[in-house]
Structures are given as C-alpha cells and as structure tokens.
Amino acid sequence: MLGRFKFTTAGESHGRGMLAVVEGVPAGLPLAPRDIAVDLARRQLGYGRGGRMNIEQDAGEILSGVRLGETLGSPLAIWISNRDHENWLTAMSVEPQPDADDDALRRVHLPRPGHADLVGMLKYGRSDARDILERSSARETSARVAAGAVARRLLAELGMEIGSHVVRIGDVAAPGADVGPGLNGRADASDVRCVDEPAAEAMREAIRTAGRAGDTLGGVFEVVAHGVPVGLGSHVAWDRRLDARIAAAMMGIQAMKGVEIGLGFRAAALRGSEVHDEIEADGARRLSGGYRRRRNSAGGVEGGTTTGEPLVVRVAMKPLSSLRRPLDSVNVKTGEAARAVRERSDVCAVPAAGVIGEAMLALVLADAVREKFGGDTLRDVLGAFEAYVDRVNEAAFDRP
Fold this sequence. Notes:
Layout: E1 6-10, E2 17-23, H1 33-43, H2 52-55, E3 61-64, E4 66-67, E5 70-71, E6 76-81, H3 102-105, H4 117-124, H5 130-136, H6 141-157, E7 161-169, E8 172-173, H7 183-187, H8 197-212, E9 219-226, H9 242-251, E10 256-261, H10 272-275, E11 279-281, E12 291-293, E13 301-302, E14 305-306, E15 311-317, E16 328-330, E17 337-339, H11 350-373, H12 378-393
C-alpha cells in the first residue's frame, strides 16, 4: 500500500477471484475497462508459461469509482474472476467441509523449498500449506497489474510512458537494446519479450531445455519510464527517496531477489569519473529544468529524486520454486523425509514479470505525482504539473 495513491489486493489463487482497491485517483480521469484488460492480457503471455494461462481470461471488471467513462475521485474496485475456481469449489469453500478428505480439500503437507509454504505455516500456525500458498501465489499479481493500469492512465495524462523488456533468462543475456519510447511495442512482438531476436531464440531453447529436465529458470527484466519530470521523490527522509520506494515495490513482487537502478552493482567496480553523469545546459529539456546529463548511469535518480532523465530499473527474478521434478522436503504431518508437492507451474515467467514490474513502477510514480502535485481533479493535477515545470525553468541560470 502506498501513501497518496494507494492500493490493496485481496483474493486467493483458486478462490472466486482477485480484487484490487485503488484510492487517490483524481476525479475526471478518463478510464475504460480496455485500459485494464490490455495489461492483464499482456501479463498472461510469454514463452514458458504453464497451463493456468490457458484457463484464465483476465479482463478486470470495474465495480466502483467510475461513471460514464471518468473516475469520480472515490475508491476504485476492480474484480478479476478466477475461472479455475469451478474446479476448486470444495477445496476453497468458505464454509466448513467436515465430510471432505485431504484429497478433496487438496491439503498440502509437503512444503516446497524456496516457497512461502513452510515459513508461512510456522508463522500463522497452519497445518496445511494450502492456507499459505493460495495467497502467496503470483496469481495475486493480476490485481496489482489492474491497479497499475489505473496508475498508468494517470501518468499518461502527464506525458509519462513505461515499458519493459527481458535482458536475461538463465545464462542467456541479450546485448544492449534501444530502450527509447515505444519499448513495449518492440518487446511484446517477442514471446520472451526480448528485443534482440538471436538472444530471444537462445532464451527459448534454454526454457525448452529446463522444461524437459523438469526444472525452472529465472532471469532479469528492465523497466524504463520516459517523460518523468525532475523532482519526484526527495532527499530529506529515507522513506521519501524515490529509488528506495521503487526498490521496495519491485522486491514485493513474488520471486524477485535483486533490484538495480542505472548502473547498479556495476558502479561498485568503477571509478567516480566513470560513473557520475556530467551535467550541461539544454534549454529544450523542460522536464529536467533546462539541464541534461551526458549519460544516464544514475538511471534517472540522484539523491532519491528524479533528474528528468529516463528511469531505468533492472530486477532479478529467481527460478520458480514449483518444479515438475520436486526437491527434497519434509512431510509436516509425519515428520518423514519426502519430495515437495508438485503444483502446476510455469517453467519461466520472466516475460510476464516485466509487465508486473511496469505496474509496480507506475504505482510508485503515481504516488509520487500525487505527493508532488496534489489536487482533487485531473485538471488540478495537470495545472499544478504545468506550473511546476514552468517554475523550474524560470531563470534557470540566474540562481544563487
């Protein structure tokens, strides 16, 4: 949950559906169901996905907060039905099922290494890992993508655009790519969302090889935001630093293990003269206050504050913990050594994870926009934004 533009989600993987509640959306923002459905559909695609994606047809039904195509300023509720719930009516029943056995209830006593199963059972005092895995499942990210689609619409009104692409799957890395505006159009043309076709084919082969071995693969995706103005975030307190907020949002996605902004960890091996972005005047760069960086090693953030350069964020995803050839575990019911449960899963979900990363970056930026520009209506937000851009460009070279 974020501060001024905030959201929460509810629902279980095989329950009736997923719910997103979004607050802080100004009144008067044009919003249609298609704005949400497009990103939900993108989240379901990708080479290496499992059978669940053949069942669900996520769209997103707006239950509240919109009338006649515009937001009302009140909370939005977005509902995403789980079509697979029809096969789980007994196991996911809200009412007690005293006559159902473990098989009918699909109880899980074999926790998966690398998953929330065992730690969740211990923390919440549950004897059935089903009580944990249903909520910890990445199915929950469908609601986040729906919330992120609303944030993306707000950002688009201010001229901001967010895209992503895959830069690594397993040990296959793509070469540097054009990450300018229109990135999603290029990335979505590939089923692994890699804009370099030779690397994309090598990624597909790596996924096929892992799948034949009953294994899974992780990787790295990069999210880029264009049109971001200077001054979002702040240096004055740790929890207002935009890079910290971005890192927390990305690490909150299931299976993510690392976040870099700009050069990230590569900067640790370089000298300062090789890392820091030299500054020069450029009166045409209004979003950055009349200045530009000769390069963007900082990834669009200095001192916890946006510079006006593109925001560049890379996120590392571990291999999924549901394996077709399960790893060693313990039967928590008997205490005996056993193989972990085999749940339906993807071989690789990195392409879809990039879409989720876009949603999370959109949510963080929308929150920062509401923090900076306030306003009850979209007109208020736009007016404050334009006045701010004018202000940072006034007498750009006549400052104390």
